[in-house]
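Quick review question:
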């Protein structure tokens, strides 16, 4: 009921909920978490305003895991041992905490515990706010006609967010196993296509880059499924990828924004925006010096505060994503703040122009122009030096590889010349695009480490 009311309560009602829940969380954290107790000791008694609380990072919290958690039975060692057993995916540690892990693509792998209140809030947000948007009556009817089977293409084997939630649903009602199936995002594309063709899902979920690859397979006729609803999660969905997926499947595409720290941070209203669940989360877009960023401007990172989870308080946590707060009201009429999520998958490249000047190149236009070349299945661009980019290409079966490569280099060269980067070379990679071996996510544009 409260989720329903909060959605209609306007800015004052949301601000009141945030304030009350934040005060209770801060009070709990300083009393029950040794780490937050130390961090907040200099603030004095009472309820400090949010922007006076120190920012925390994943590395900092993980380094003192046992001092971070508020339940003394929870230990890093215990949680790690629990999470290491694949049979525990979707099960609850100590009979009460769902343990999620991150891949560590951006540094330290984290262990995130979701307590019962956090899982209850997730369920309420799903049922009351998100599902009705995703499942309009027409989509629902098409899903039912299609047999109601749901395929999810996620990283598997460890308790990552996507697979854990799905397994949890199956554990809670084993008869669901017939209709819910997880496919590995690391499987070869041809294998994945064959398995999906056999399963015939009415709903499909996966990372944006996987959905884009499957869309090309569908366009080319090797994949022939008819999902009525497609959900993106775990990677930012670009407008280009969304259009590709929509046109390939003729399905409703729904975008999601979440993290292991908070499974659903924002949802897709169907009018081009993501809305923050502002009754249960605070999201502060900030610049590299962690100062607030104005609406309409992309942030360098965001500070996340999760208002539902007590066992592992997440308060002003540097999440690393870039988001843009929408300056104008969303046409859907929702009172929840609207954001665009740029994500964190791709690096901005810094290349050397003629004369040695540093030129920053945005990652998405590069991907878009390569993907527009006929025959390209997927691409990864790796900056190996200020003067060179390695091009890792996967081409569609039947395509003339040499010809596709030639066109890709030509396109990239034109783009580089336009940016004063005529001296930057593009080389062919020895391999195709490489997904992170753990998370199965694909960083399409990156700067080679070291
Ligand atoms: Zn909206």
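Suggested answer, residue by residue:
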């Amino acid at each position: 009921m409260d989720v329903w009311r909060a959605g209609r309560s306007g800015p004052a009602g949301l601000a009141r909920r945030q304030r009350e829940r934040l005060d209770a969380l801060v009070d709990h954290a300083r009393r029950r978490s040794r780490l937050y107790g130390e961090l907040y000791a200099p603030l004095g008694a009472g309820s400090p305003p949010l922007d006076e609380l120190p920012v925390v990072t994943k590395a900092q919290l993980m380094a003192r895991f046992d001092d971070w958690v508020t339940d003394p039975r929870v230990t890093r060692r215990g949680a790690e041992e629990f999470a290491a057993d694949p049979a525990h995916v979707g099960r609850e540690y100590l009979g009460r905490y769902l343990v999620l892990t991150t891949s560590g693509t951006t540094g330290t792998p984290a262990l995130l515990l979701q307590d019962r209140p956090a899982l209850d809030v997730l369920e309420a947000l799903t049922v009351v706010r998100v599902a009705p948007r995703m499942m309009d009556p027409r989509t629902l009817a098409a899903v039912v006609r299609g047999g109601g089977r749901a395929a999810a293409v996620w990283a598997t084997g460890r308790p990552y967010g996507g697979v854990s939630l799905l397994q949890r649903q199956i554990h809670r009602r084993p008869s669901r196993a017939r209709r819910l199936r997880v496919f590995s995002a690391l499987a070869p594309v041809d294998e994945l296509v064959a398995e999906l063709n056999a399963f015939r899902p009415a709903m499909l979920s996966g990372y944006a880059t996987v959905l884009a690859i499957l869309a090309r397979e569908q366009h080319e006729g090797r994949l022939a499924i008819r999902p009525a609803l497609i959900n993106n999660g775990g990677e930012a969905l670009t407008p280009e990828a969304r259009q590709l997926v929509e046109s390939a499947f003729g399905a409703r595409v729904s975008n999601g924004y979440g993290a292991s720290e908070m499974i659903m941070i924002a949802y897709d209203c169907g009018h081009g925006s993501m809305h923050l669940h502002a009754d249960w989360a605070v999201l502060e877009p900030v610049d590299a010096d962690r100062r607030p960023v104005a609406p309409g401007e992309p942030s360098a990172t965001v500070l996340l505060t999760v208002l539902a989870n007590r066992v592992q308080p997440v308060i002003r946590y540097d999440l690393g994503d870039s988001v843009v707060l929408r300056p104008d009201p969303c046409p859907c009429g929702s009172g929840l703040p609207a954001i665009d999520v740029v994500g964190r998958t791709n690096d901005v490249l810094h290349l050397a122009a003629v004369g040695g000047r540093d030129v920053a190149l945005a990652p998405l236009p590069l991907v878009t122009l390569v993907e527009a070349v006929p025959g390209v299945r997927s691409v990864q661009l790796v900056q190996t030096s200020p003067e060179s980019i390695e091009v890792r290409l996967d081409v569609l079966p039947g395509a003339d590889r040499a010809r596709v490569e030639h066109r890709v280099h030509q396109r990239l060269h034109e783009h580089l010349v336009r940016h004063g980067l005529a001296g930057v070379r593009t080389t062919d990679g020895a391999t195709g695009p490489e997904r992170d071996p753990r998370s199965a996510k694909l960083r399409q544009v990156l700067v080679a480490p070291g």
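Why it works: The pocket of zinc ion is lined by residues 269, 271, 273, 275, 330, 332, 334, 338 (CB under 6 Å). The chain has two domains: 1-344, 349-447.
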